[in-house]
From TrEMBL, chain A:
<feature type="domain" description="4Fe-4S ferredoxin-type">
    <location>
        <begin position="765"/>
        <end position="795"/>
    </location>
</feature>
<feature type="domain" description="4Fe-4S ferredoxin-type">
    <location>
        <begin position="881"/>
        <end position="910"/>
    </location>
</feature>
<dbReference type="InterPro" id="IPR017896">
    <property type="entry name" value="4Fe4S_Fe-S-bd"/>
</dbReference>
<dbReference type="Pfam" id="PF12838">
    <property type="entry name" value="Fer4_7"/>
</dbReference>
<dbReference type="InterPro" id="IPR030948">
    <property type="entry name" value="TAT_var_transloc_signal_dom"/>
</dbReference>
<protein>
    <submittedName>
        <fullName>TAT-variant-translocated molybdopterin oxidoreductase</fullName>
    </submittedName>
</protein>
Automatic annotation (TrEMBL), chain B:
<feature type="signal peptide">
    <location>
        <begin position="1"/>
        <end position="30"/>
    </location>
</feature>
<protein>
    <submittedName>
        <fullName>C-type cytochrome</fullName>
    </submittedName>
</protein>
<dbReference type="InterPro" id="IPR036280">
    <property type="entry name" value="Multihaem_cyt_sf"/>
</dbReference>
<dbReference type="InterPro" id="IPR009056">
    <property type="entry name" value="Cyt_c-like_dom"/>
</dbReference>
<dbReference type="InterPro" id="IPR036909">
    <property type="entry name" value="Cyt_c-like_dom_sf"/>
</dbReference>
<feature type="domain" description="Cytochrome c">
    <location>
        <begin position="33"/>
        <end position="131"/>
    </location>
</feature>
<keyword id="KW-0732">Signal</keyword>
<feature type="transmembrane region" description="Helical">
    <location>
        <begin position="206"/>
        <end position="227"/>
    </location>
</feature>
<keyword id="KW-0408">Iron</keyword>
């Protein structure tokens, strides 16, 4: 039964007396146009010096002037190449395979270039080494056109030439030769050639130390893996092979252990033959993984350690001791352990606790279970940072033992908890060079800034997983006078060859094994056929026999409960913060809180009440929140805005990294607070004290915008049990209306107001969105941004619900109790009745809600309400099923937006390009280079919306016409469906009967949004099925 | 004293050779070439790299045989070897061959083994004495053209004088008649004074109203017409940085449009050709024929040769090689669709198989390119309504055309019936 659940988007909606929700339900455009203010004030009207006559004069003059000015067109110049490169045809896009590896995000990608300009990042579907591109990777292209990039090497504040830079730094390095330490502080490189270069560098200069530093450390994971398998890395997991997934504090759909696991996870989530994976999540912050879980148990970070230890003991049978868990938690852990044991090798356990013992315990449980999803032989290399080495380095620097420090790809002055210590140490070095694209916090404190190119202008090679190599190649000539870190290393080493040749040399000698280098560059990846597997085999056998409880016991005893515990995390949109100057990511609403342009302290409702922290919605729908001061061990971050987060474990708070940067970014992007000072000892979990601060913070939160408008049945979900046992009519019924007192389905033509149009000829586009496979990651939102030139409007406009996203991912909360009644009874039978009273408490909606994501874009209704109300016929229907929007015809009445039941139309309240008031990427020549030349840049006063990427479908059709063939299945793509690595979005032509989409359209899970309205949309959703039944 | 003997031997051989050479050359000289055939062979084989009087990729070839014989003492046999396979000659270590090779940037000359001895002698005969250029024929034509022009003016002038005389005569006759009447005492009847017509018009309010309405309508009509053509640049013919004549290239020389605008086949843009495309031909064509040059100066006031020099300057060509100093040409764009209208050349050129002239007009007759069509939406739509979709031999259309033509009951579908009028096909 899907219809009797109550969905809500915001805590405010649960408040029955809230007038704001009522107002928002009634008004499409919440902000009143202040006509009364202007016309109602008689005094100011009378005292105005502009009389009606003057006004008319001005109008007449300006009309005449405008029409005179319009008579003469501008002279437009067109400058062709002198010698046109053979691979460039103006108007035709080229694609290059390359790799992003910025130390935080690693992915194989395709780059679309037009006339030599990279304009979009797409998935390299052939190379699925590290999952598909996430939202940050899709947005990273904007970094190439960042106006604040360092444009030439600098010494202090002055630009110098590379010759000067090289001669001065070489001299300084030569003086240090075999003297004081030369330290290379780098991001995780995972690059075979760069590692070789560094070892050559250290051969030449003697006393060289290479320290790898991850801003958000996975050091404990690496240590645990290294201790067990002898190699510094992380175990690989393939969640598509797991039937039961238990995660304790691991946001593996997010950035856990380098990310890239969500595609595998999503594969297992789609019910096939009545089976899907079961996912139990124990966590304190509401994460993406928790939101997708079948069962989510909120608990404090300290309890997580104990819970993991207990889970270990229940699964393996070894006693671990330690404190006792609360009764309900213990019951939940027992259930999880039982399910794990039942699933056996089909089960997998993961944890995000940054503790060597916790990570060891997980490795042991997975080995004990002989988990198929657990692959310790394939080592993930995308995190290499070593916290203890970094701490040692700072101590050495402060002691004056470091002669030269060369940083690359890191920003320790921003990301280190003890940044002041680092600064102190930096002053004691003889030479400090920062390889950086920005004048950021660190590079401005160094003597030299070596301007580095963007990754789209660079060469590089990577080994993300053992045996899986990928290649980075430039897609554009360097825009500025920049040099790669590796190029400079080559020069310092006295090697005259180019870095590309150097990579080729390394690959030919060590990696390719006789295969073609050019092929590897073309593909962007290379999988070695001789992956060494022998080494780890022995280890596995050995540990299997003796599952030692040592780590478990250590873990259990180390769990120390604090009064308030802070979990630091990374947001899907911002990551570790290196892309903070990216307006797409700033404007990207967080999938969980739906808040953009900010980070915030997430607090549970009861803690907020206790501490007097409030969230309130003001009249225009904007969210305001209290400020809090957060103190960890005497370090205080003050004025942190507070958001009350449903599902946040009581006694815990969350705060995300990546915000609060101050250097090297535009004033508009300097948002949020810096959480890194609280990241002491690189430990993401801290005991904190929180006190309320003065004032209220204004959030740009879109969660109350475009509300359900009182339409309840917006999302459909069911449980696996019902899905398997009951008819479709029971859990996915077509709504019925009464016609002549006979119940008739709304899909019947008898009850339709309109005559149906014959769409059986030609193409008829449909988009299917599988709510089971959609994790809410938001890659599609950014891909849509990039493809369709969607403007960025900024924080204040976002707050006024004037965001321009064509594609939004709605997040709905619901309490379990309304349709879980049956299941609860079943729980009773299974002998866990004692714990049920406590369980009942957790069912309180705001305490632990169920979460569902539903991407919503224009539904391209066949019977579209917007089309009938447009007074100028600016929006009309195409035969191919697309709802067209002719911007040049639109006069901006906004009537269509009023009449749209899905609230997907966006109005250009301002001119967002070439406007100093909106100084984001569309305001400078460099930033505008990212615009897609095939899509109009909209002007002020017109309505816009998703077009089903008509420029892409038209291009596919044209290609087929030119080749004289029919379009193949899978060729039609939208930006969102191409970006979706989870396979949640499938686009295609339903008139092609053999296509995937034609099958999905008639799938028994298929439903339309607000079907009872009778709009006959061309977007079809697949009912979300939750695996809530016990396995 | 061996080497002495050798020296003698060498000198003897040389002497012998000289005699042989002389006899041979005389015999060759006796073999007369045909300069007319030589010209066509020269144009077909040599003109890509050689000119008669100017160095190009290779040296100037006027009187090459005589020059070689006089300056280097090389004979026809050497020339034959060189022409048939220069690289072999270079490899054999021939001194002059290597000298020439190095002098001309080590660009090896193509081998022409297919040329017979007679062919070569024809070519050489042409290089020695090119046939005289045909006498210019325009002079006669120009006179012909000018004659009616002069006579027209004369006739008109004579007519005007005639009318003036007639008018004068009439006035004189009237005056004389009046005088006669006066003399005879006949009084002219004086008519009653009438209301002047304008006063009558003003007094008749209905007439005033009607004419005001008429005037308003007329001015409205013209104002509308005037305002509607704002922004429509039909006939826009800007002065370009290089006077490029489509008339000569596409018209007289009959070069295919898509030779230069090649991207029209595959891209939304037809593409303004890059300068390296121009140099495909203009490497060899440094100046136009004298007749064309005269025509340019007289008819269009343009020095074509100077325009070609502008191209060389832009592309950085010094007559023999590229200097690398380029100066991209800033053409003025003529056809400007607004940004919100999407147009794809390849759809119309490759798929529909339209001639470029359908939209761009008689380009082959345009000395300077201008905008032929209005490029308005109405103009696009009209064509889509009237034009049948070309579906033959196109696998994409097979199914959809069959179904649609059945639905509409027609043999041939227009672009409009295929969906070519939908907003979203051009506006996104």
């Amino acid at each position: 039964m899907s219809s009797n659940k109550k969905y809500w988007k915001s805590v405010e909606e649960l408040n029955e007396n809230s007038s704001i929700v009522e107002t928002l339900q009634q008004n499409e455009f919440v902000e009143e146009i202040p006509t009364d203010e202007f016309l109602g004030d008689k005094e100011s009207l009378e005292s105005s010096s502009t009389s009606r006559r003057d006004f008319l004069k001005y109008v007449g003059f300006s009309t005449a002037a405008a029409s005179l000015a319009a008579c003469e067109g501008p002279v437009i110049k067109s400058i062709p190449y002198v010698v046109q490169p053979t691979e460039i045809i103006p108007g035709v896009a080229n694609f290059y395979a390359t790799t992003i590896a910025d130390g935080y995000d690693f992915a194989s990608i395709l780059v679309k270039t037009r006339e030599g300009r990279p304009i979009k990042i797409e998935n390299n579907t052939d190379a699925s080494t590290n999952g598909m591109a996430n939202a940050r990777v899709h947005a990273s292209i904007l970094g190439l056109y960042d106006n604040l990039r360092v444009k030439a090497p600098m010494k202090g504040d002055t630009e110098i030439s590379w010759d000067t830079f090289m001669s001065e730094t070489s001299m300084a390095l030569n003086q240090l030769k075999d003297g004081k330490q030369i330290v290379l502080l780098t991001q995780t490189l995972a690059s075979p050639s760069t590692h070789k270069l560094i070892s050559e560098f250290s051969d030449k200069y003697g006393n060289v130390r290479h320290v790898t530093y991850d801003a958000v450390s996975e050091s404990a994971t690496l240590d645990a893996y290294q201790a067990k398998y002898g190699k510094r890395g992380m175990a690989n997991y393939d969640f598509s092979k797991a039937k039961t997934i238990v995660s304790i504090g691991a946001d593996f759909i997010g950035d856990w252990q380098g990310g890239g696991f969500e595609s595998g996870y999503a594969k297992g989530r789609v019910p096939e033959n009545g089976k899907m994976s079961r996912h139990i999540q124990f966590e304190s912050n509401m994460s993406l993984s928790g939101a997708n879980a079948d069962k989510r148990v909120p608990l404090k970070p300290s309890e997580q350690k104990l819970a993991l230890a207990k889970l270990y003991s229940y699964v393996t049978g070894n006693s671990v001791g330690g404190a006792k868990l609360s009764e309900n938690l213990d019951a939940a852990i027992k259930v999880a352990a039982k399910e794990l044991s039942n699933a056996g090798s089909n089960a997998v356990v993961v944890t995000g606790i940054q503790d060597v013992n916790a990570q060891t315990v997980v490795l042991e449980i997975n080995e004990y279970l002989k988990s198929k999803a657990f692959d310790p032989k394939t080592t993930i290399m995308t995190r290499q940072g070593n916290s203890s080495e970094v701490e040692q380095l700072i101590a050495d620097m402060k002691a004056g033992q470091v002669g030269a420090i060369i940083t690359y790809g890191v920003n320790p002055m921003y990301t280190m908890p003890n940044a002041s210590d680092f600064a102190e140490g930096l002053n004691k070095t003889d030479l400090s060079v920062a390889f950086s694209m920005k004048q950021d916090e660190t590079s401005t404190n160094c003597q030299y800034i070596a301007a580095t190119p963007h990754f789209l202008e660079s060469w590089g090679d990577f080994e993300m997983k053992s045996g899986h190599y990928s290649m980075m190649q430039p897609t554009i000539r360097p825009l500025f006078d920049t040099k790669q870190f590796q190029e400079v290393l080559l020069a310092w080493n006295g090697n005259a060859s180019s870095y590309r040749d150097y990579i080729k040399e390394v690959w030919t000698a060590n990696i390719l094994n006789g295969e073609s280098f050019n092929k590897a560059v073309q593909d962007g990846f290379f999988v070695s056929s001789s992956i060494d597997e022998s080494e780890s085999e022995d280890n596995t056998d050995e540990t299997l026999e003796t599952p030692s409880a040592k780590a478990g016991m250590a873990l259990a005893s180390s769990a120390k409960v604090g009064e308030m515990e802070l979990s630091l995390y990374t947001k899907v949109g911002m990551g570790d913060g290196q892309q903070a100057n990216n307006p797409w990511l700033q404007e990207f609403p967080d999938p969980i809180t739906r808040t953009s342009w900010d980070n915030y302290l997430t607090v549970s409702k009861s803690d907020a009440d206790r501490l007097g922290l409030v969230n309130e919605n003001v009249a225009n729908g904007g969210l305001n929140g209290s400020y809090a001061n957060v103190t960890v061990n005497g370090v205080t971050v003050s004025n942190v805005p507070v958001i009350i987060q449903p599902g946040q474990a009581k006694g815990s708070v969350g705060l995300s990294f990546g915000y609060g940067r101050t250097s090297g970014l535009k004033a508009e992007m300097q948002t949020g607070v810096n959480a890194y000072p609280l990241y002491q000892n690189f430990n993401a979990v801290q005991n904190v004290t929180i006190s309320k601060a003065e004032g209220m913070h204004e959030f740009a939160c879109v969660q109350l915008h475009n509300t359900l408008m009182g339409r309840g049945d917006i999302i459909r979900e069911t449980t696996l049990e019902i899905f398997n046992t009951k008819d479709k009519e029971y859990w996915n019924a077509v709504p019925k209306v009464s016609k002549d007192h006979i119940e008739t389905p709304v899909t019947s033509p008898d009850v339709d107001l309109w005559d149906s149009f014959d769409r059986s000829i030609g193409h008829h586009f449909n988009l299917s969105i599988d709510l089971n496979a959609c994790t809410g990651c938001g890659a599609c939102v950014i891909a849509c941004h990039a493809e369709n030139n969607v403007p960025v409007v900024g924080k204040t406009e976002m707050r006024r619900s004037r965001d321009m996203h064509w594609l939004r991912i709605d997040r709905y909360y619901s309490s379990q109790d309304s349709f879980e009644g049956d299941n609860e009874k079943k729980d009773n039978i299974s002998g866990l009745s004692s714990s049920l009273s406590e369980f009942g408490e957790m069912e309180n909606p705001a305490d632990n809600p169920q979460v569902a994501f539903q991407p919503v874009m224009c539904q391209h209704c066949n019977h579209a309400p917007c089309e009938t109300v447009c007074p100028v016929a600016a929006t009309a229907h195409g035969r191919q099923g697309q709802n067209h929007m002719a911007y040049n015809r639109c006069v901006g009445t906004r009537y269509c937006a009023n009449n749209c039941p899905y609230k997907v139309r966006r109005f250009n309240w301002f001119l967002y390009n070439k406007n100093d008031e909106f100084d984001y990427y569309m305001n400078d020549d460099l930033g505008r280079m990212v615009l897609n030349p095939d899509v109009t840049v909209r002007s002020r006063g017109v309505m816009e919306k998703c077009s089903f990427c008509i420029q892409k479908t038209q291009k596919t059709i044209l290609d087929a016409k030119r080749d004289g063939r029919e379009v193949r299945d899978g060729e039609f793509q939208t930006a969102c469906s191409a970006a979706c690595g989870n396979g949640a979005m499938v686009f295609g032509d339903i008139n092609d009967k053999d296509s995937e989409i034609a099958a999905l359209k008639v799938d028994k899970r298929a439903y339309h949004l607000l079907e009872h309205v009778g709009t006959k949309p061309n977007v079809v959703y697949q009912t979300k099925v939750r695996n809530t039944a016990k396995a | 004293m061996k080497h002495v003997i050798y020296r003698n031997l060498t000198s003897q051989i040389l002497r012998l050779g000289f005699i042989l050479l002389l006899t041979f050359s005389t015999s060759l000289n006796a073999q007369e070439g045909d300069p007319a055939n030589g010209k066509s062979l020269f144009n077909a084989n040599c003109a890509a790299c050689h000119k008669l009087n100017k160095p190009m990729t290779g040296p100037a070839l006027a009187n090459v045989e005589q020059r070689l014989y006089e300056e280097e003492g090389l004979d026809r046999e050497w020339l034959n070897k060189w022409i048939r396979n220069s690289s072999a000659l270079i490899k054999s270590g021939d001194a002059y061959a290597n000298k020439i090779y190095n002098e001309w940037n080590q660009v090896a000359m193509n081998a022409f083994p297919q040329l017979s001895d007679q062919d070569i002698s024809d070519i050489l005969a042409y290089t020695a004495a090119p046939p005289p250029a045909p006498a210019p024929v325009e002079t006669g034509a120009e006179v012909m053209v000018q004659e009616p022009g002069i006579s027209n003016d004369l006739i008109l002038g004579a007519l005007a004088v005639l009318f003036a005389l007639l008018a004068l005569a009439l006035i004189l006759v009237k005056r004389t008649l009046n005088r006669f009447a006066e003399a005879k005492g006949i009084e002219a009847v004086i008519e009653e004074k009438r209301i002047p017509i304008w006063k009558a018009f003003v007094q008749n309010q209905f007439l005033v109203l009607v004419s005001v309405i008429f005037l308003l309508l007329a001015s409205g009509y013209f104002a509308y017409g005037y305002f509607m053509q704002i922004g429509i640049d039909q006939g826009y013919e800007p002065v370009q940085p290089i006077h490029y004549s489509h008339r000569i290239h596409a018209g007289e020389n009959g070069i295919d449009c898509k030779y230069c605008h090649s991207s029209a086949r595959v891209s939304k843009h037809s593409g303004i050709p890059s300068l390296n495309i121009c140099m495909n031909c203009h490497k060899a064509i440094g100046e136009v024929a004298e007749a064309t040059q005269q025509e340019g100066i007289k008819e269009f006031g343009v020095d074509y040769n100077a325009e070609i020099q502008k191209l060389y300057e832009a592309v950085g060509w010094d007559g023999t090689g590229y200097t690398g100093e380029t100066q991209p040409v800033k053409w003025i764009r003529i056809h400007n669709l607004p940004d919100f209208a999407y147009f794809n050349h390849s759809q119309h050129v490759s798929v529909a198989g339209l001639e470029c002239q359908t939209c761009h007009g008689p380009v082959e007759e345009m000395e300077i390119m201008y905008q032929h069509s209005p490029l308005t939406m109405g103009w696009c739509i009209n064509c889509h309504r009237e034009t049948n979709v070309k579906v033959k031999d196109n696998g994409y259309y097979t199914k959809i055309h069959e179904q649609l033509s059945k639905k509409y009951g027609v043999e041939q579908l227009t672009a409009a019936q295929m969906g070519g009028l939908e907003c979203g096909k051009c506006h996104y």
